[in-house]
Amino acid sequence: MTVRVRVGTAYDVLIGHDLLDSVGDLVPPAATRALVVHTGRLPAVVSVVRESLQAKGVRVVDGLVPDAEAAKTIEVAAGLWGLLGSESFTRTDVVVGVGGGTVTDLAGWVAAAWLRGVGFINVPTTVLAMVDAAVGGKTGINTAEGKNLVGAFHEPLGVICDLDVLAGLPGADFAAGMAEVIKAGFIDDPRILEILETDPAAARQVGPHTLELIERAVAMKGRVVSADLREAGLREILNYGHTLGHAIEQHSAYTMRHGEAVAIGMVFAAELAHRSGLIDAALLQRHRDILTAAGLPTRYADAPLDDLLVAMGRDKKTRGSTLRFVVLEGLAAPTRLVGPSEDLLRAAYAALA
Ligand SMILES: NC(=O)c1ccc[n+]([C@@H]2O[C@H](COP(=O)([O-])OP(=O)(O)OC[C@H]3O[C@@H](n4cnc5c(N)ncnc54)[C@H](O)[C@@H]3O)[C@@H](O)[C@H]2O)c1
Ligand SMILES: O=C(O)C(=O)C[C@@H](O)[C@H](O)[C@H](O)COP(=O)(O)O
Ligand SMILES: [Zn+2]
């Protein structure tokens, strides 16, 4: 069964099996070249994508990039722009990102900036990229000062989520992707939480609930970004857990997975909300229970809060020197906590130790 989630009126996210050879169908008829951005770690996947593009008469250029967060740098992006230049890519040509969220973020940004914007297609190969990174049009890279500080909103032409590729995904990466699915559960779709509470193994490996969990998370993200692509307001809810999460990722020099850092960040946000009288102890504990059952971290004490506050000062939700957190005022009821006191921040952080 293939599920199709329409995002806005612009594009579809396809979720199912045996979908890789349909990537070529997303290429606009005028395209003659495609840059396939990938890490070299999934040769069988890239080979099917390449053949699918070639079958449409498109010449494929290989854009090999480093694995994981090392791909999201200006140097790597510049290398790909060099390739696009030497291969004379025009505005009708396309970029295809095949990989995890780091690859789709990079590929999207390279496409967003090339000739001020060419088309790109995402072929996410991790749970995280399928449910979140490849969908919604946030593209970008990191700088030395922080996470995703340079980028653009640039929507893909389409997204192909072939669940077959998840068979070889390490358990820790599977669970890290589920952190974003759990995020979707807390901010919008409690059915996700019920599924994971009934079947905790679903957060760690492919199983009978994988399709439904991915579909629910994509549908939620699709609804939100369709209403607020450029994050004027509503879209901020997708940042639940990310204010502290991004700071922790950066502090770990990106040795901690994005989803793991977001898991800790969600517990921090829940602590802030509980200590502000917005949520009860049971909802706070539900965060810890579901994330722990998924094999995700909920404790953290590896950095002085003062260091993390510097990074949080560069969070995109910050206004001037005022930190703004997405918090819950109930299950599936996100709101904002604006300018929490230093005492509150320190107490919530201490509770993570
Ligand atoms: N743009 C957005 O809206 C958005 C949303 C969420 C996260 N992100 C970004 O996504 C990134 C994290 O993505 P990620 O968790 O996919 O990390 P990742 O891209 O680093 O992939 C994780 C690991 O899985 C490996 N891998 C990928 N597919 C595989 C497969 N099918 N089988 C075996 N191994 C495979 C990769 O080689 C890598 O080592 C972060 O940079 C984060 O900021 C962006
Ligand atoms: O799509 C969004 O909007 C999100 O916030 C989704 C997040 O899961 C994702 O990690 C995103 O890249 C964070 O964006 P940023 O604007 O905080 O860099
Ligand atoms: Zn995220």
Structure summary:
42% of the residues lie in helices and 18% in strands. It is of the alpha/beta class.
Characterize the structure shown.
The protein is of the alpha/beta class and 353 residues long. It has two domains: 3-168, Rossmann fold (3-Layer(aba) Sandwich); 171-228 and 237-350, Dehydroquinate synthase-like - alpha domain (Dehydroquinate synthase-like, alpha domain). 42% of the residues lie in helices and 18% in strands. It is globular and about 60 Å long. The protein starts with a strand and ends with a helix. Residues 132, 136, 138, 147-148, 180, 231, 235, 238-239, 242, 316 line the site of the ligand O=C(O)C(=O)C[C@@H](O)[C@H](O)[C@H](O)COP(=O)(O)O.
Bound molecules: nicotinamide-adenine-dinucleotide, the ligand O=C(O)C(=O)C[C@@H](O)[C@H](O)[C@H](O)COP(=O)(O)O, zinc ion
Low-confidence stretches: none
CATH architecture of the largest domain: Up-down Bundle
Which outline best applies?
Answer: globular
Features:
alpha/beta; Rossmann fold; Dehydroquinate synthase-like, alpha domain; 2 domains; seven-stranded mixed sheet; two-stranded antiparallel ribbon; 11 strands; binds nicotinamide-adenine-dinucleotide; binds the ligand O=C(O)C(=O)C[C@@H](O)[C@H](O)[C@H](O)COP(=O)(O)O; binds zinc ion
